[in-house]
Amino acid sequence: MRRSNDDLRWQELKKQIRKRDKSCRLVKKLSARDYLILRKKTGCLWNILDCAHVFGAGSYPFMIYEKKNIVLLNRYSHRLLDEFKHPVYGTPINKEEHTEWWIKIIGKKRYNILEKISKNKV
User: Fold this and answer.
1) Rounded distance, CA 41 to CA 43, Å?
2) What is the pLDDT of residues 3-29, one digit of tens each?
3) Could you give the 3-state DSSP secondary structure of residue 83?
């Protein structure tokens, strides 16, 4: 679910996320080897940072504006995670691996909080 540029609440939230995270949250969690591989694969997408939803906006529209549910990711890895692919290598991953990546990116405690929110409103 895409938000419009006319959505002032979304625009303000994106500013807050960019100020909080400052850079791609995934990159900080990678090994040196995976960092170099990702850097090589992303090309110009390396410098494009997206506000990415941990619990996707399409499946969890009630979590779109949940600040804890949004992190900065490079566009390449964001797209891959949305497609259930490894955020560095681009190979398919299953639901459990997808969850493991989000836990690696945001931490177990934060993930558990978001998971609880996702289950309480579905």
Assistant:
1) 6
2) 777 889 999 999 999 999 999 999 999
3) coil
61 within domain boundaries: yes
24-31 long-range contacts, CB within 8 A, separation 24+: 24/49, 24/72, 24/73, 24/74, 24/77, 25/71, 25/72, 25/73, 25/105, 25/106, 26/73, 26/74, 26/77, 26/87, 26/105, 27/74, 29/104, 29/105, 30/88
Q: What is the pTM of this model?
A: 0.91
Residue 116 lies in a domain: yes
CB distance 95 to 43 below 8 Å: no
Residue 90: both structure tokens together: 């681009």
The residue segments making up the domain with residue 19 are: 8-121
